[in-house]
Design a protein that fits this description.
Shape: extended
Number of domains: 1
Structural class: alpha/beta
Number of strands: 6
Oligomer: single chain
Low-confidence stretches: 1-5
Mean pLDDT: 83
Strand order of the largest sheet: 1-2-3-4-5-6
Helix content: 10-25%
C-alpha cells in the first residue's frame, strides 16, 4: 500500500518561527519552500564575512512515505538548498561570494537507537531523529554550515595572493614571524 495516496499533505509555512515546530510524528506528509536571509540563520551569519542584502538560501522540503519490504513504510525527507553568502577568500583575504547548492535525503526515525543502528555505508540518505516539535530551521542551518567550503576562495585567476601571506612585494618573506606558542607558554610560566 502506498501511504502517499492516503495521507494528507500539509503545506509548510515559510516563516522561520513556524519552521521551529513541525510535527513529523503526525501521520501526514509535508511540502514547503521559501527563502531564509542570512540574518535568520544566526550560526551562518557568524561565518559570513559581510551581510549583503539578498544573501540567503532558497529551500524546498518534501516528506513522503516509502514502502519497506517486511516492515512499516519509512518516512523520508528531501531537502534542497540553493543560495549565496560572503566569506573571506583564503587567497587574497577579501570578501568572496560563495554560491552553494545542496540536495539532501534523510530517513526520519523515531529514536536515537534507530539512528545509531542505521548503516554508515548508506551515502544516499542519513537518519534524522524526529519529534512532535521538530526544528526544520535548525536542520536547514546545519546543512548550510556543512556545505560551506573549508577553504573558500575566488575562482582561479580572479584574485592575487595577499602580500602578508606569502611575503612582501619584492618576494622576500615577511620578517615578522609569529612567536612560537611554546615560548609564550614558557615565558608565562616564568612570570
Amino acid at each position: 500500500m502506498n501511504r502517499n495516496q492516503v495521507l494528507p499533505q500539509v503545506q509548510l509555512s515559510a516563516e522561520p518561527n513556524t519552521l521551529k515546530r513541525v510535527d513529523f510524528c503526525a501521520p501526514q506528509s509535508y511540502k514547503g519552500a521559501g527563502f531564509l536571509s542570512i540574518s535568520e540563520l544566526p550560526r551562518v551569519a557568524e561565518e559570513a564575512s559581510t551581510l549583503v542584502l539578498g544573501d540567503g538560501f532558497h529551500w524546498d522540503l518534501e516528506t513522503h512515505f516509502e514502502d519497506s519490504p517486511g516492515s512499516e513504510p519509512s518516512q523520508v525527507m528531501e531537502l534542497g538548498l540553493k543560495g549565496r553568502l560572503h566569506l573571506v577568500c583564503q587567497r587574497c583575504l577579501q570578501d568572496c561570494a560563495v554560491d552553494l547548492a545542496e540536495k539532501r535525503r534523510f530517513l526520519l526515525v523515531a529514536t536515537e537507537a534507530e539512528a545509531d543502528d542505521y548503516p554508515l555505508e548508506d551515502e544516499e540518505q542519513e537518519p534524522l531523529v524526529i519529534s512532535q516539535q521538530f526544528n526544520v530551521l535548525e536542520t536547514i542551518e546545519d546543512e548550510v554550515l556543512l556545505s560551506i567550503p573549508l577553504i573558500p576562495k575566488h575562482p582561479e585567476g580572479f584574485c592575487e595572493p595577499h602580500v602578508s601571506v606569502f611575503g612582501d612585494e619584492d618576494g622576500d618573506e615577511v620578517a615578522d614571524k609569529p612567536e612560537n606558542p611554546f615560548n609564550i607558554l614558557k615565558n608565562m610560566k616564568k612570570n
